[in-house]
Amino acid sequence: MAEVEEKLNHDNQNLDKKVRYRGNHDKPKPWDDDPNIDRWTIEKFDPAWNPTGMLEVSTFSTLFPKYREKYLQDSWPRIESALKQYGVACKLNLVEGSMTVSTTRKTRDPYIVVKARDLIKLLSRSVPAPQAIKILEDEVQCDIIKIGNLVRNKARFVKRRQRLLGPNSSTLKAMEILLDCYILIQGSTVAAMGSFKGLKQVRRVVEECLRNEIHPVYQIKNLMMRKELAKDPALATESWARFLPTFRNNSSIYFKFDSSGRMFSKSSPKARRRSHIQHYLLNRRLARQENLLLVDKQLESGEYFMNDQKKADKKWQEKQEKQSEKSAEKKRKRDASFLPPEEPTQNNNLNKSEESKKDITELTQSLKSKTKELKKQKKTQEKVNAEEYIAVA
């Protein structure tokens, strides 16, 4: 027994003394265990690190839509001056509809040309120039999410894309505040700018919304809870699964969040069995109602008491009547194409005829009035005595 114990102790010592370093360069460094060093910080580039510049010219170009031409033409001097500070040349080609960026002899940062490529991509996706220029900073990254191929139906795609915006863009603003990112939804793409962590969460929220997995409002509630839990240093090493909310949709599926913040669905067997029974009973009830309605109609028409031959004859007769109605309608439409069009009536002739009628009526009225006056004059002349007007001599 003593020999076995000695052997086990020797093996444990060998396990503790693992050979971890091989070669001349794979050796422990004095800064490996330094708690004052933050390995996640991105240091700002110093031009003194690359005094000689670039050896080769790197070029990137991208196309932009026609409706962005006027805006890019107006804001191009500002973009050109921003890139000039980093020693990057840019060119706007309105004939081809393209933007090009390339390194020069003054370029010192080797990664700035990739940032410039992201800049022209964001400009082509309708991001404003002042916002897109921020991508040149070391702390800001971007991600262009393609959502056009996630949904086949166009109407459904528009509806789900509207979920990301929300009423008066409230959902989008809430996501921007919680994730500390700039988000722009344009056409079939979503452009996002921010940190790596925020961009990862933005992509997850957008893709799950377009796939109809989870509504963005529930994602916002989860993010709000996680933001509050992050303020407590005592929960830094604990799992947050018990604090995160659970949501339930109409199909008896429960949505839960794991410790990493990703949502997963879990449907209980009882809920599935209950839903199956409800669907079965509903289908039976509907079928029974349809049968009752059919029997009532047959009783009213007298078809319920007919034999099979009479029923077949009645169906054939109804079919013939429908065919005759359709054929008559088609014939009427064909004959309508051969009828001569109605001649257009001239408004001038109508007006002239109406005016002539008015003139005739006026003439007849004037003649009648004149005849009446003449008659009155004759009557007055007959009553006058001429001797009264003769002077007595």
Automatic annotation (TrEMBL):
Major place of residence: nucleus
Q: Domain (KRR1 small subunit processome component first KH): give its ranges.
A: 58-138
Q: Where is this region: Disordered?
A: 1-33, 311-393
Q: Which UniProt keywords apply?
A: Nucleus, Ribonucleoprotein, Ribosome biogenesis, RNA-binding, rRNA processing
Q: Where in the cell is it found?
A: Nucleus, Nucleolus
For this chain, the family text in UniProt reads: Belongs to the KRR1 family.
Ranges for domain KRR1 small subunit processome component second KH come to 140-231
Protein name in UniProt: KRR1 small subunit processome component
Q: How does it assemble?
A: Component of the ribosomal small subunit (SSU) processome.
Pfam families reported for this sequence:
KH_KRR1_1st, KH_KRR1_2nd
Species of provenance: Brassica napus
- Recite the lineage of the species: Eukaryota, Viridiplantae, Streptophyta, Embryophyta, Tracheophyta
InterPro entries the record matches: KH_dom_type_1_sf, KRR1-like_KH1, KRR1-like_KH1_euk, KRR1-like_KH2, KRR1-like_KH2_euk, rRNA_assembly_KRR1
Instruction: Give the compositionally biased regions (Basic and acidic residues).
Output: 311-328, 352-361, 370-386
**Origin superkingdom:** Eukaryota
Record function comment: Required for 40S ribosome biogenesis. Involved in nucleolar processing of pre-18S ribosomal RNA and ribosome assembly.
